[in-house]
Design goal:
- This protein is α+β, with helices and mostly antiparallel strands.
- It contains three helices and eight strands, in the order H-E-E-E-E-E-E-H-H-E-E.
- It has a single domain, classed as Immunoglobulins (Immunoglobulin-like), CATH 2.60.40.10.
- The strands form two sheets. Strands 3, 4, 5, 7 and 8 form a five-stranded antiparallel sheet that branches. Strands 1-2-6 form a three-stranded antiparallel sheet, with no helix packed on it.
- It starts with a helix and ends with a strand.
């Protein structure tokens, strides 16, 4: 009798593993530059997803690098976000960096960014979707031009 329960448990586990899929990436909205109250610049963006699963989970952000005009800026702030079941959801992506970063860049490049009123921002790395013991890697490679001045 124990063997039958064990076999049922194994088949149920295998079936459940095939049912959990990583959330669908829909895009990144509202990338902007802001200043926090300590004077640091904050690059803020909102990643849009849809979870098709009947169960929720979590996103673990641990290894996402942010580049501005093809130059490394910083790692994305590492956080864990709840993923609701069967819904659209938003994950805030925030990177704090010193405003001196813009001053250290090539003068011609900085002048070009001001004249064109845009910066090329790229998010590249891996986010992990964790649900019911599964740890599914989710690759991110997204680039967008943003306005420097509103």
């Amino acid at each position: 009798m124990k063997k039958i329960y064990f076999i049922i448990l194994i088949f149920t586990s295998l079936f459940a593993c095939n049912m959990v899929k990583p959330p669908d990436f829909k895009g990144i909205d509202h990338i902007s530059l802001k200043k926090n109250n300590t004077g640091q610049l904050v690059l803020v963006a909102y990643a849009q997803y849809h979870n098709p699963n009947l169960v929720g989970g979590k996103f673990k952000i641990s290894d996402v690098k942010v580049f501005v005009n093809d130059k490394y800026l910083a790692n994305l702030n590492a956080d864990t976000y709840k993923v609701p079941s069967k819904k659209d959801f938003t994950v805030p992506l925030e990177v704090n960096f010193d405003s001196g970063y813009l001053k250290k860049s090539n003068l011609l490049e900085a002048l070009n960014a001001v004249l064109n009123n845009k910066l090329k921002v790229q998010y590249k790395g891996t986010i992990y979707y964790v649900s019911h013991g599964l740890n599914i890697p989710y690759s991110i490679d997204y680039t967008q031009d943003i306005k420097v001045f509103d």
